[in-house]
Design brief:
Residues 322-363 form the UVR domain. By secondary structure, the protein is of the alpha/beta class. It has helices spanning 22-36, 54-67, 109-118, 147-152, 177-188, 195-207, 252-273, 277-314, 322-343, 347-371, 384-397, 403-424, 430-454, and strands at 2-9, 44-48, 72-79, 82-85, 90-93, 107-108, 123-129, 155-160, 193-194, 215-218, 230-231. The protein starts with a strand and ends with a helix.
Length: 458
C-alpha cells in the first residue's frame, strides 16, 4: 500500500496578512515523513505560496479523485490562514489569492469534505494548521482494537491545530507550536504510531505551552469506517516482513455488541409487560445508541474480511474471473497515467486516455454481464465476505455510483452479517433466521441489480 501527500503551505498571501512559518512547517513535516517514515518523495504534491490558489487546490483534488484507489493512503496537509463564519457555522481554508471578508474567494471545509467523502483511498488524514480549523468535527467513539486491525479498516481522520479559536504562527524563522509538536513527536517515535496516539500527544504538547488546544478525531460523516492510519517508522533497509496469518474469526467487540443487543431487547420486553413507560423510553434510547455502534462494528468487520479476500486475490485465489482482475488493474493504471498527463497540462493526451478509461469500463461491464457475476452472488453465510468484496470492487471501478448508494449496500451486507452471527451464537431460532435472512437477501439483490443496470452491466 502506497502513501501519498498533498501539501499546501502559504506565507505570501496576495491580500491577506502574511505569515512567517507556514511554508517552513509544511516543508519540515514532509521532510520527516519522507526521510523517516514509509513515504516516497515521488508521491508528494506541494502547492506553496503563489501556487496555492483555489483553482489549483481544486484541480489537485480532482486529480486524486480519479487516481486514488483503495491500495493508496492520502495525507492532506494545510498550513495557512483559516476563517469561521458564526452565522453560517462554517469553517474555511484561505487560498493564496483570497480577498479579506469575501467568502466567495475562500475554500469551504464542506467542499473539501465532499472530496474526502468521494475519494476511494484506504486511509485519508487531513492535518490542518490554521485558525478555527476545529470547526470541522463531529462526535466520535474511541477505538480500542489493535493497530494491525485498525490499519486494515478504511478511515478518514483529521487533526487540526486548534478549535474555534485563532492559532499561533510561531516566531519568525521557526515552526508554529502545532507543527513543532507534530515534527518532534514523529522524530522521537521509534516504532509504529497510530493517528489517535499522535493526536493525543499533539494535544498534550501544544496545550501545555500555548493558548490553543489541537483536536484529532475521525470524520464520521464522510466515509470513515472505523480504522486508523498507522505511521510506520522506516528501518535501515527496506525488507519484506513476513506477516502472521490473521485470525478470520469475528471480533470479540462485535460479538459482545450483538449479545448486548439481545439482552437489551429482553429488558425492553420485560418493561413493556410491566407497563413501565419511563423505563421503556430510556431503554429505547439506549437501544438506538447501541444500534449505531453495532452498525459501525458490522461494517468494520466486513472491511477487515474484505481486505483478507483482497490479499488472496493478489496471489491468484480470486472469486472474480482473472480477465476481470486484469482489466480492473489496467483501468486503474490508465486513470493514474491520465492524472499525471493532466498535471502536465497535456489535455489532448488526457482526453484520449479518458476515452481509453471509458472503453475499459465498458469492457469491465461486458465481462460482468457475460459471466453473470452479480447474478451468481450466492449471498449465503459461507460466501458473504467474498460477495461483499466483489460488490465493493465493482462499485470502486464505476465512477458514477454515488456515496449514499455504496453506504446503503454496505449496511444491507451488515444486516446479513448481524443475523448470521446472531444465529451462530444461538440468539435467534432457525425459523426467524431463515425468514429474516431471505427478506434481506431479496432487498440486497434488488439494490445490486439497480447498481448493475445503472452502469451498463445488463
Amino acid at each position: 500500500m502506497s502513501n501519498h501527500i498533498f501539501a499546501i503551505g502559504i506565507d505570501n498571501y496576495k491580500s491577506c496578512t502574511k505569515l512567517n512559518n507556514a511554508v517552513r512547517d509544511i516543508e519540515n513535516i514532509v521532510d520527516i515523513l519522507t526521510d523517516k517514515y514509509d513515504f516516497d518523495k515521488s508521491n508528494v504534491t506541494k502547492l506553496l505560496n503563489e501556487e496555492a490558489t483555489l483553482e489549483n487546490i481544486i484541480n489537485e483534488l480532482e486529480n486524486y479523485l480519479t487516481s486514488q484507489d483503495e491500495s493508496q493512503n492520502l495525507i492532506i496537509l494545510f498550513s495557512g490562514h483559516g476563517e469561521f463564519d458564526d452565522l453560517l457555522q462554517m469553517g474555511y481554508l484561505i487560498p493564496q489569492e483570497a480577498l479579506p471578508y469575501s467568502k466567495s474567494t475562500y475554500f469551504a471545509y464542506s467542499t473539501l469534505f465532499s472530496y474526502i467523502k468521494a475519494l476511494k483511498s484506504h486511509h485519508i488524514l487531513l492535518i490542518s494548521d490554521s485558525c478555527f480549523s476545529g470547526s470541522i468535527f463531529t462526535p466520535y467513539r474511541k477505538m480500542e482494537t489493535s493497530k494491525e486491525k485498525l490499519d486494515k479498516i478504511p478511515s478518514k481522520w483529521a487533526i487540526t491545530s486548534g478549535r474555534l479559536e485563532p492559532v499561533s504562527d510561531g516566531e519568525p524563522g521557526k515552526n508554529s507550536p502545532f507543527a513543532e509538536a507534530l515534527i518532534n513527536i514523529l522524530d522521537k517515535n521509534t516504532s509504529s504510531l497510530s493517528i489517535s496516539e499522535l493526536s493525543n500527544k499533539i494535544v498534550s504538547d501544544v496545550a501545555e505551552n500555548v493558548e490553543q488546544i489541537p483536536r484529532g478525531e475521525p470524520l464520521q460523516s464522510y466515509g470513515h469506517k472505523g480504522g486508523e492510519f498507522i505511521f510506520t517508522r522506516r528501518t535501515g533497509t527496506k525488507k519484506n516482513k513476513a506477516k502472521k496469518e490473521k485470525d478470520n474469526s469475528e471480533s470479540l467487540e462485535l460479538i459482545k455488541l450483538i449479545e448486548s443487543n439481545y439482552e437489551l431487547e429482553d429488558k425492553i420486553e420485560e418493561a413493556e409487560n410491566e407497563n413501565k413507560t419511563g423505563t421503556i423510553r430510556r431503554l429505547n434510547k439506549e437501544k438506538e445508541s447501541l444500534n449505531n455502534l453495532l452498525n459501525k462494528e458490522l461494517v468494520k468487520e466486513l472491511e477487515v474480511q474484505r481486505v483478507n479476500v483482497a490479499q488472496k486475490t493478489k496471489i491468484g485465489d480470486s472469486p472474480l474471473p482473472q480477465e476481470y482482475i486484469e482489466k480492473y488493474e489496467e483501468t486503474i493504471e490508465v486513470r493514474k497515467l491520465k492524472n499525471e498527463i493532466i498535471k502536465k497540462q497535456r489535455y489532448e493526451e488526457a482526453a484520449k486516455l479518458r476515452d481509453d478509461e471509458k472503453r475499459l469500463e465498458k469492457e469491465l461491464s461486458t465481462i460482468l454481464n457475460h459471466n453473470q457475476i452479480l447474478e451468481k452472488l450466492e449471498l449465503n453465510p459461507e460466501s458473504l465476505y467474498n460477495d461483499y468484496f466483489i460488490s465493493q470492487l465493482i462499485m470502486n471501478i464505476q465512477s458514477n455510483i454515488k456515496f449514499d448508494k455504496r453506504d446503503r449496500i454496505e449496511k444491507i451486507f451488515g444486516r446479513l452479517l448481524f443475523f448470521d452471527l446472531s444465529y451462530k451464537k444461538g440468539k435467534i431460532s432457525p425459523f426467524v433466521y431463515e425468514d429474516s435472512r431471505t427478506k434481506i437477501v431479496e432487498i440486497l439483490k434488488n439494490e445490486l441489480e439497480k447498481t448493475g443496470s445503472n452502469n451498463g452491466y445488463k
